[in-house]
């Protein structure tokens, strides 16, 4: 298995586990999106590196977890589910801090 396939297989296994989803739930979600050949065994084979993933499948799989193929394949680990979660939390924190500042300014202007 190539490094790319290995990295994707590892990412999928970790993303699925962190999300608390079974292989069956992931397969069901992909079938609902039109990937009719996906079964639980398909996900298991991908995670074991036995079955390669087509590009359209990789896009659909990563989208299920709110990621993109490029983030899933990052060698620096930023594409891990935890890394993506930390990035998301950092963005949300930044937005909340800006909203808080705007509210404080509005309150101060109305005093």
H and E order: HHHHHH
Low-confidence stretches: none
Structure classification: mainly alpha
What is the architecture at the second tier of CATH?
A: Orthogonal Bundle
* Main β-sheet description: none
Question: Over the alpha carbons, how many angstroms does the gyration radius reach?
Answer: 19 Å
- In CATH, the homologous superfamily goes by the name lambda repressor-like DNA-binding domains
Shape label: elongated
Overall residue-averaged pLDDT value: 86
Q: How far is the first residue's CA from the last residue's CA?
A: 66 Å
* Strand residue percentage: under 5%
Q: Could you name the CATH topology?
A: 434 Repressor (Amino-terminal Domain)
| Percent helix | over 70%
CATH classification class: Mainly Alpha
Q: Give the strand tally.
A: 0
| Individual helix count | 6
- How many domains make up the 3D coordinates? 1
């Amino acid at each position: 298995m190539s490094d790319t396939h290995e990295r994707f297989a590892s990412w999928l296994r970790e993303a699925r586990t962190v999300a608390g989803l079974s292989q069956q739930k992931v397969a069901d979600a992909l079938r609902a999106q039109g990937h009719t050949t996906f079964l639980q065994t398909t996900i298991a084979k991908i995670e074991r590196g036995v079955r390669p993933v087509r590009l359209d499948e990789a896009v659909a799989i990563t989208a299920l977890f709110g990621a993109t193929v490029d983030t899933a394949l990052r060698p620096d680990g930023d594409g891990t589910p935890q890394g993506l979660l930390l990035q998301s939390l950092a963005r949300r924190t930044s937005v909340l801090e800006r909203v808080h500042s705007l509210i404080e300014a509005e309150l101060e202007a109305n005093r």
